[in-house]
Description:
This protein has strands at 2-8, 18-29, 42-56, 68-69, 74-76, 79-81, 85-86, 97-110, 115-127, 130-134, 143-147, 150-165, 171-172. It is mainly beta and 173 residues long. A hairpin with a 4-residue loop joins strand 8 (97-110) and strand 9.
Amino acid sequence: TASIRADGSSRFGSENRWGTFPSVSAGWIVSDEAFMENSEAISLLKFRSSFGVTGNNNIGNYTQYALVDNNVPAVFGDTFAPGSAVSSLSNPNLGWETTKQFDVGLDLSLFNDRVSFIYDYYTKNTTNLLFNVEVPQESGFSNFSDNIGEIKFWGHEFSLNTVNTTGKLRWTT
Length: 173
């Protein structure tokens, strides 16, 4: 299977509003092949793999703009007057946080599904993290939103299941 999607979000700067997110996956059930039909031990043997990209736009609305607060009083001598002040910094380059994930796996069942083994290796890499970056307070602001940083996860997952006894007493692990 394969797919591709393009998402747009007005939460990002004008140059980065659109993100393209493809994915592809494949699987091969080797045990269904003719050369495996005489195998008495293997009930299922399947190889599978997938790769995909996803996007994250979970930030507040209007984050890319310099916002103005119209409820800031101005002081002129002893007099308060209505005023306005910039309340946040703009970032016209703000864009999608993206995650690329790759997975490869194996499903193996033996002896009429009495023993099942599943294995996966995965890697997940998120880049352009949406993050509030601290700025010097001398700027008049404490932070602004930017795409910064990267997180990488990877690992191995496996599962082993057995049907130890059947009949009136059923025992599985």
